[in-house]
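Reopening: ABC transporter ATP-binding protein still failing for me.
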Amino acid sequence: MSFRNLIHLAGVGKSYGAVNVLKPVDLTIGDGEFLTILGPSGSGKTTILRMLGGFTPPSTGRILLDGVDITDMPIFERPFNTVFQDYALFPHMSVAKNVGYGLKMRRRPRAEIDAKVADVLAMVELSDKAGRYPAELSGGQRQRVALARAIVCEPKVVLLDEPLGALDAELRRSMQDFLKALQRRIRTTFVFITHDQEEAISMSDRIVVMDHGKVEQVGTPKDIYYRPQSEFVAKFFGENNILPARLTAGADPAIESPLGGHALHGAAPAGTCSVAIRPESFSLGEAANTAAGQRSMVGRLESLTFLGATTQLVVRLGDGSPHTVKVRLPTPDLGEGVGIGEAVSLRWSTADVSVLNA
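Support: Ran it again with your exact input. Result attached.
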């Protein structure tokens, strides 16, 4: 899915004295896109959100909205609304008054406020809670009130600062589905901050992965998951096997070891590098049965862990290698299985191996 560019962060960076918390970022955000900025604590993701919202001025660069420079525009003039993790609801106001507060500050007619509040509360499935107060609501209901308040004024962009972080696991999953469905319904740009990889994958059109104030990779969830470009991204997203390799020069750079010589997606210049391959990309099979585009290798089984629908194997690579790989297979595919210490033959597709940037 493609989106018209709405926001452009052009070389935007942030420093506090000599401390550089965000290296210059060039990033576009689409009109109607659900963009997630993902990273561990201290990666710079919230800094970007605060600069977008006008809470913090950038040290370098410009922020453009539909081509107009809004870098110095005050918070109250930006057509953005923010949803915070603590919801920031007014405890002395009813749900309806919380949701309608922004419209009241804009001096909209009472009839218009009442109509829009009713529409938005119906949208977030809280029509029957209009007269309640925040203390009388569950965490998920308070979250939906905060969302209703953010969208009632029809902003161009909704900024969400880890809004699901305070919810328990089951409610969090439910709110992920609700939030994504709501965004699709109103077709408003959402910029979502999280440190949760599963949350980012399940909700986003694109993901921006950050670490130590730098953008590591931008792409669709599938791009990020299956085509990590750096060791950080590969390790941050699940259980990629990271292995050293050597590339040979030629028309099609190829890996010599440890995964056997073959051309690779996104191959790097000749020399040493690291490669990533996911545990589920392996299958069991003899070299004689290897199809076109596949490679095989013999290793020795070190451990086997039953996980229900899948089983995880740890296999020591052959030829005296110090390296092991994690292999995740559907449990029925193991049949009678193999014993610890026995030889196993692994197969994988060359298309499933990614060369990582240094």
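The helical segments are 45-53, 95-105, 110-123, 139-151, 169-186, 197-203, 221-226, 231-236. If you still see a failure, please send the error message rather than a screenshot.
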